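Q: Here's a chain of 249 amino acids. Please give me its 3D structure as tokens.
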Amino acid sequence: NAAIKLALDKTHAKYGNYKLKYTVQMNTQRLLAAARANVLPNLIIQSVYDDAIFTRNGLTFIDIPFDLGITSYRICFINPAIKDELEKVKHIEDLKRFSIVQGMGWPDTKILRYNGFKVIESNSYDGLFKMIPARRADLFCRGINELKNEYTDYKNLSNLSYDESFALFYPLPRYFYLNETNKELKARIEEGLQMAHADGSLKRLLFEFYADDIQFSKIPERRVFELKNPSLKGLDYKYKNYLLKQKDL
């Protein structure tokens, strides 16, 4: 992860040299088990915060969202047949009459249902896109870091488009997690991220990496409907100080 490298570089004078290694590919459950057991020293996991998962069993996290919450802004794939209806939506309650499809077990499902939306789940990634042209669901909402590439990959599907009038915003801060015994590594990365945030280099890195996605999403031109994320109940409110604002994008 480029943000980890940035943090380590920022703190080189104080902490010295470092070496980054990548693990073999593992799913989230295996990564969590490895981190909790500390079988791979200084293993770092990156994930969206969920109070139910990451506040127990020997894990700790670096309390700065490394991507400044860019995935918090969601834009929806739609069938062009409902484009005009969506453009007329002015209030969040009006939007709730549209059904939303999400992946099985994705954190978005819990958030959307908590806020009163009808959510349909599917365990097929490809199937999620196909449900929109088939009118089996009205909306399939994705992070602005995902929209452009996915639209390119699936635009061959007839009657698959994306809405250009609004965006959803629900805070999805992503953090680095590690075993609670790896205190020096946590201190170093936390210090480095604080320095990178303060001097603007973390934001510059993010915008360099996601420049095309940010431009494609046109967030400042959209109506933004803000939702609550119930999975953040155990998180200190200061995370809000790091999240990108609509005007930043």
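Q: Can you summarize the key feature?
A: The mean pLDDT is 94.
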